[in-house]
Amino acid sequence: MALKGYPLLIRYQKRLLILAAAIFTAEAIFLSMIKFDWIADVIWDTAYIIPWHMIDYYALLLTGPVVVILLYRMRKQTQKAMAAAFLLTAGAVLIHYFTYNSFTLAETVTFLFSMIGTVLYMICRGMFAGNKRRLLIQAAAGGVVLLLFYGMLPGQSRYFQAFVNPEANAYDTLSDSYNGVLIQELLSKSPLAGRISLTPEELMEYGTGEWYFSYGDAREAAAEGKKPFSEHHRSIFRSDPSDVTLWNILPQHYANNYLLAVFILQFGWLTGILFLTIMAAFYAVLFSCIRRIHGALAGAVSFHCGLCLLFQSVLYILGNFGFQYGSFTNLPMVSEGSISILVNMLLLGFIFSAYRYDRVIDAPACGQRSSAV
Question: What are phi and psi for residue 190, nearest 5 degrees?
Fold first, then answer.
């Protein structure tokens, strides 16, 4: 019988650990080449053909379950396991942050919170030897240090400000912060049921950005209650006022990045609430299945995969309400893209196959042989 999902992960765990180590090493070398300007422009130009940051996005998410297995194998050596969890998480964050900057903020945060949550879960399940309360305090302190460390990285204050207060960073109609402000404005005008109603004049102002920006100087813009356009602003909106529709004024890639917002704008807030209710029910059922998994390792791997899916969804929903952090995440199993669907289905498959095989397949502690009944 062919191995699938979780059994496959356990059977080839050593090879996957080696592969994960090779990926991290390659990225560390790549980071060094960037720092010392050893990369030719022709290599950077391949980013327009090969989306390296998107490949890295999913490589990082799939590395998590492998790291969880490593920590589980080190469960008898508690302090080494805690140190490994801290150092591997910090190393992954550093490498991805400095290699791709804002392109991978969302998945870096997803990985960071998923690892912290998984380590706390493993301690609560009693997987590590030692006093549970002391280990929880130690892990929580390590998680706080990691979050503070992440928050102090160069540029984080700007990214965080753009996330919590997009208006302060909206200086051009092409910026992500402006997209957030525009979505918030449109959502505020959406009815409880039915499509948003806008006049042709309003549609034109939203399309050009003149509802929010002014071509005058700072004093004139302030008098109008607006912001002045950036000196580098260039208008790309060329639609005729009589032909402008809602689809012309929405941010680029709205059909993929703003799916929830588009539902609300098209059908009203009740539809958006229904959308969120369905998502909440999905995760309630998913974590209910994870909670019923008896095997320690199966539960840890499943919990980590569930957190990866959950945090992607949370960041996606926040982005749809105008609070975008870094680049947009994908909505698992919904957003378009073959790689996105494949990787998130793999994470979901790990959960359900772990639920099925949790009593018969386990990974030994370091120095022991694997056993499967």
Answer: -75, 140
The DSSP symbol for 211 reads T
Task: Name the least confident of 135-144, 230-239, 256-265, 348-357.
Answer: 230-239
Q: How confident is the model at residue 371 (pLDDT cuts 50, 70, 90)?
A: very low
Can you give the pLDDT at residue 238?
A: 62
> Residue 227: phi, psi to the nearest 5?
-110, 150
* Nearest C-alpha neighbor of 99 from the set 145, 59, 139: 59
Q: Which residue has the tokens 């160069």?
A: 154
**How far, in Å, CA of 280 to CA of 289, rounded?**
14
Residue-wise DSSP of 234-256: -------TTT--HHHHSPTTHHH
Kindly report the CA angle at 248 between 244 and 253, in degrees rounded to 5? 170
User: Long-range contact list for 179-184, CB < 8 A, 24+ apart?
Assistant: 179/251, 179/322, 179/324, 180/319, 180/322, 180/323, 180/324, 181/212, 181/322, 182/206, 182/212, 182/249, 182/251, 183/251, 183/258, 183/261, 183/320, 183/321, 183/322, 184/321, 184/322
* pLDDT tens-digit series, residues 143-180: 999 999 998 888 888 888 888 898 888 887 878 888 89
Percent of the chain scoring above 90 in pLDDT = 33
DSSP 369: -
Residue with tokens 């929903």: 317
How many other CB atoms sit within 10 Å of the CB of residue 49?
Answer: 7
Q: How many helices (H) and strands (E) does the chain have?
A: 17, 2
Q: What's the whole-model pTM score?
A: 0.84
Distance CA 72, CA 53 (A): 29
DSSP 371: -
pLDDT tens for residues 292-329? Answer: 988 888 899 999 999 999 999 999 999 999 998 887 77
Nearest CA to 196 among 278, 252, 272? Answer: 272
* Max CA separation in the chain (angstroms): 77
Number of C-alpha atoms within 13 angstroms, CB side, residue 264? 24
207: which 2 tokens?
């399309």
Q: Residue 274 has what pLDDT? A: 96
Residue 159 near residue 217, CB atoms below 8 Å: no
